[in-house]
Amino acid sequence: MESIEILEKARSEGWTDEEIVDRVRAGETALYEIIMRRYNQRLYRVARAILRDDSEAEDVMQDAYVRAYQHLDQFARRAPFSAWLTRIAVHEALARVRHRNRVQQINDGEHEGEFVMNLAEPSFNPEQTASAVELGHLLEEALLALPDQSRAVVMLRDVEELSTEETAGALEISEDNVKVRLHRGRAMLRSWLLQRVGAKAKDAFPFMGARCDRVVQNVFAQLS
Q: Would the pLDDT of 201 be above 90?
């Protein structure tokens, strides 16, 4: 498979997700790689935000891609394909959370006093946190320390830059709940952290290179 050539062709011709899905359903299955490489970063981030575990996040990604591929005929186009795919990954991650019973499900009825975040012992010294890369790691640490109710919302809204409507659709909660959880999450992150990291937020939770290739290869292995 000439991955680079396929990706370049998709970019140069401006293929939409929906156009690629139509081509995949028509038999051009190799083009599914374009979808995976477009959304590896997003799915990794949201799965990691829910599970807080690297290996499980990768497993969720692979399961989500396989499930999406197997049910492409059920993509009704009522929402963007990216939202449909993200929702599948969220369902997979939450199913694992419920199964292992390691963290509680997101509960709209949680009390304010139960939102706790501990950033008292950062693992970076002042010299390290002065660099953009280390600030990205600090943001990653801070986001993963958020409570379940806010973590995925902050990840999707502030890091992935999804709209309130898109985030609500992905997590299957109301837009009002998205706003409330986002407000709480941002408050706990501390304003100075978000202000200093700024545009470097996208450097957190990298998913590229060999890791990206591994997920693509594993998904195709399962589909074959």
A: no
Q: Please state, in angstroms and rounded to a whole number, the distance separating the CA atoms of residues 34 and 80.
A: 16
Using one digit for the tens of pLDDT, what is the confidence trace for 95-121?
998 877 544 544 445 544 444 444 444
Residues 6 or more apart whose CB falls under 8 angstroms from that of 195 comprise none
Token pair of 127 as six digits = 């010299």
* pLDDT, averaged across the chain: 79
- Which CATH number do you get for residue 25? 1.10.1740.10
Burial of 74 per CB tally in 10 Å (0-12, 13-18, 19+): exposed
Tokens at residue 80, please?
A: 């963007």
| The pTM of the whole model exceeds 0.85 | no
Amino acid at 2: E
Contact predicate 159/151, CB 8 Å: no
Whole-angstrom Cα distance, residue 209 to residue 216? 11
Summarised one tens digit per residue, pLDDT across range 40-56 is 999 999 999 999 888 89
Handedness of CA 147, 152, 154, 155 (dihedral sign): positive
One domain, residues 22 and 95? yes
Structural domain boundaries, residue 149:
116-203
How far apart CA 26 and CA 22 sit, in angstroms, is 6
32 phi, psi to nearest 5 deg: -60, -20
Tokens of 47: 């799965």
Is 161 found in the same domain as 129?
Answer: yes
DSSP conformational letter for 157: I
